[in-house]
Amino acid sequence: MKLISIVMPAYNAEPYISKAIESILNQTHTYLELLISDDGSTDNTRKIIDAFEDKRIRRFHNSCNMGNLKTINKLFAMTQGDYIAIQDADDWSDESKLELQLKVLEKNLDIALCGTQSIKIDNNGRILKKSDFPQQHSSIVKSIPEDYLFTSASVMMRKIVYDQVGGLNEYFDRRGGADWYWLSILLEHFKMINLSQHLYFYRYNSESITNKRPVKHDSYTVGRVIAFLFHQRKKLGSDGLMDRTGSLFKELLKYEDKLNLAYVKDPLLLDREYSVRLIFQGKYLYGFIYVIKNFMLSPLSALKWYYSKLR
Fold first, then answer.
1. DSSP string covering 31-70, please?
2. Less CB within 10 Å around the terminal CB: N or C of the chain?
3. Given this model, what pLDDT does residue 209 score?
4. For residues 295 and 303, is the Cβ–Cβ distance under 8 A?
5. For residue 1, what are the contacts with CB-CB under 8 A and spacing of at least 6?
6. Phi, psi for residue 195 in degrees, rounded to 5
7. What integer is the mean pLDDT of 195-215?
8. CB 115: neighbour CB atoms within 10 A?
9. Share of the chain above pLDDT 70, in %
């Protein structure tokens, strides 16, 4: 029987951590190890984790807050399984998820990664969205780097994938986007599919950092940085993060300086981008309030920017 390693970083997840853990311990595939690390939580997350007595749980708590990226990498390095999966501490999985993914991977040796469809749920249990990701590798990678047609936390991979490529790149530490960069590289070397079943449930929390007005612009520029690196690899076979002493890294830094300069020259740019995010999230009232504020503070620059986005 194949051992599956599930890594779970956790930070201030007190209301959700029990359900996340139970969804793994109650899997129909029972031969697994759950590697959990409390990342210096200030609530009762660690206490709840330590109350579980299941021998399949391996604890690697941090003495201080290391951040999600470094915690995942630490847990990756401790895995002993034939397969590796990630479970976010505020999400949960259908009880058959690991079994169904394992069956596909065991039957199809050419496939190295297997994702699932996912369901977006709010804190009241209301279903907000069900995914309809493509199932075949060619369709999944077709839209990268503009879009990523899978839920990264739902993916299970062969251990050999991690052994060959390694974990998340720490250049993205506390910036976000590390999973997209990492998976875009994996998908250039390994074949992936998505199952048709909705087996992963991720929680939409309006109070999370990603859903608040950002203090810094990193969350808006990181996607462009990942796309820049993607096109470097496509054109030259390598990118700026693969050799930080070479010319490609210098090109990356120059590109990031250009992105950052736009926010220095236009202090209202971050609010304009946030207004678009709110509107796409369906928060039309708050989104249009930010639009109006932008017009009132700088009518011409706001008009030019919104017009460029509508073209």
1. -EEEEEEEBS-SSSHHHHHHH---TTEEE--BSS---HHH
2. C
3. 43
4. yes
5. 31
6. -70, 160
7. 75
8. 26
9. 96
Cα atoms found within 13 Å of the Cα of residue 282, Cβ hemisphere only? 3
Please state whether beta strands 83-86 and 156-158 pair in parallel, antiparallel, or not at all (unpaired): antiparallel
Sequence length of the chain is 311
What single string gives the DSSP state of each residue in 268-295?
THHHHHHHHHHHHTT-HHHHHHHHHHHH
Output the DSSP codes for 144-159.
TTT---S-GGG-EEEH
| Residue 283: φ, ψ to 5° | -95, 70
| Cβ(52)–Cβ(35) below 8 Å | no
Distance (Å, whole) CA 218 – CA 111: 34
pLDDT bracket for residue 263 (50, 70, 90): confident
Per-residue pLDDT averaged across 254-283, rounded?
A: 85
Task: Report whether pLDDT(210) > 60.
Answer: no
Q: Return the beta strands (E) in the chain as ranges.
A: 4-10, 32-38, 57-59, 83-86, 92-93, 111-122, 127-130, 156-158, 191-204
Q: Which of 195-199, 266-270, 296-300 has the highest mean pLDDT?
A: 195-199
Contact of 106 with 29, CB cutoff 8 Å: no
pLDDT band of residue 184 (cuts 50, 70, 90) is very high
Residue 158 CB burial class (10 angstroms; 0-12, 13-18, ≥19): buried
How many other C-beta atoms can be found within 10 angstroms of the C-beta atom of residue 256? Answer: 17
What is the widest separation between alpha-carbon atoms in the chain?
65
Say which amino acid occupies 170: E
Give the position of tokens 């199932």.
135
* Integer Cα distance of 260 and 253 in angstroms: 10
